Amino acid sequence: MTRLARATVDLSALRYNLEVARQLAPSARIVAVVKGDGYGHGLLQVAAALKQADAFAVSCVDEASRLRAAGFRHRILLLAGYFEADELPVFAEYSLDPVIHAEWQLAPLERATLQRPLDIWLKVDTGMHRLGFPAERVPEIYRRLRSTASVASIRFMTHLARADDRRDPMTEVQLDAFAAACRSLPGERTIANSAATLAWPQAHAQWVRPGIMLYGCSPFIDGLECPWLQPVQTLEARLVAIHQRRPGERIGYGGIYACPEAMPVGVVSIGYGDGYPRHAPSGTPLLLAGREVMLVGRVSMDMLSIDLRSAPNARVGDAVVLWGEGLPVGRVAECCGTIAYELLCKITSRVQFRYVDRGGMG
Ligand SMILES: *Cc1c(COP(=O)(O)O)cnc(C)c1O
Questions:
Q1: What are 246-300's pLDDT values in tens digits?
Q2: Are residues 246 and 210 in the same domain?
Q3: CA 253, CA 245: separation in Å to the nearest integer?
């Protein structure tokens, strides 16, 4: 028996979720967001499964050049553009589209002599207050870029801060601000992340930029299950020991959990060294043979403990699912005070990744 801490990635579910995005935004093209190593699923495997996307979005030249080296010829957006002027020749060589979001990025582009001009995405800050030009500066920045020899085409982009809350009026405020900022300027637009792809059709524009939904997770704050998506990742480990505990016996580091009665407690072969969150509290759900069991005590580096009172037939060697079908990552994340995105990104290289394809759409 080897130590099992394994993530299974369902490639057909990735394809299926991409198709869901297509059906929801039939008139838009799709930028599949594969930053953060494909949200922790493996950049190249994810990109191959999502090759029907119209473009990819990544965070840095390193991720983009890995896609090019693997033969992907899609449009590739760099969501924060270039970080240094000396990256610009790489943008030209690999045909990468920078997002231009700040004043300092203009001068290097104006000075550069590139082997080919770049398609750029001009980012407008409509209320996220992270990257982007204020709405009132857009016409001026547009004109400056328009007269830059290294710029081939200009598209417009903004990012929504609260689209994950379907009742929040801020999204409409941002949509109006964006429309006003680039009114009468020619060029395609992109606004929508996953939440807006799913819930704000008025934000679809010419390109949508879904990320988390492709990985089968709900982006919404008020519904962690997203029945129309298929879960992509299953994180599994196995039971390596089962002990009968006496009432009052304490489990693990710090003894933070005391057994309320005589009960079986199992030890599972995964911990924070694999990326399972250390701050997961007692009561966080896991699945054993399809049934929910609960985490008890502190998560250690290589192991965690579970209450087996609801699984009297459990045996050493049984698989335990940390998240996957029947237990959305988002539910585990909520127990830990975080979001699915973070849990997915934090899986470490010690976890063995396995890619399966069930054929068809998903
Ligand atoms: C990460 C990101 C996305 C995708 O967001 P999801 O919530 O994962 O769909 C879209 N646009 C930008 C600018 C991003 O940084």
A1: 999 999 999 999 999 999 999 999 999 999 999 999 999 999 999 999 999 999 9
A2: no
A3: 16
Distances (CA, A) of 132 to 37, 102, 183: 24, 6, 17
Query: Are 94 and 132 contained in the same domain?
Result: yes
- The structural domain count of the chain equals 2
Cα Rg for the chain, rounded, in angstroms?
A: 23
Same domain as 129, residue 26 = yes
Residue 131 alpha carbon to ligand 1 centre in Å: 13
State the average pLDDT over residues 331-352.
Answer: 96
> What phi and psi, each to the nearest 5 degrees, are found at residue 263?
-160, 150
Say which residues have a Cβ less than 8 Å from residue 234's Cβ, sequence separation at least 6: 7, 8, 10, 321, 323, 324, 325
198 residue type, one letter:
L
pLDDT reported for residue 3: 84
Between the alpha carbon of residue 133 and those of residues 17, 151, 175, 191, 328, the distances in Å are 32, 18, 15, 15, 37
Instruction: Examine residue 362 and state whether it is found in any structural domain, yes or no.
Output: no
Q: Is 253 a catalytic residue?
A: yes
Residues 207 and 283 in one domain: no
226, part of any domain: no
Domain range for residue 39? 11-215
Please work out whether the CB of residue 211 comes within 6 Å of at least one atom of ligand 1: yes
CA 25 to chain centre: 19
End-to-end Cα, the chain, rounded Å: 31
Contacts of 349 (CB under 8 A, 6+ apart): none
CB of 216 shorter than 6 A to ligand 1: no
Are 237 and 300 in a shared domain?
yes
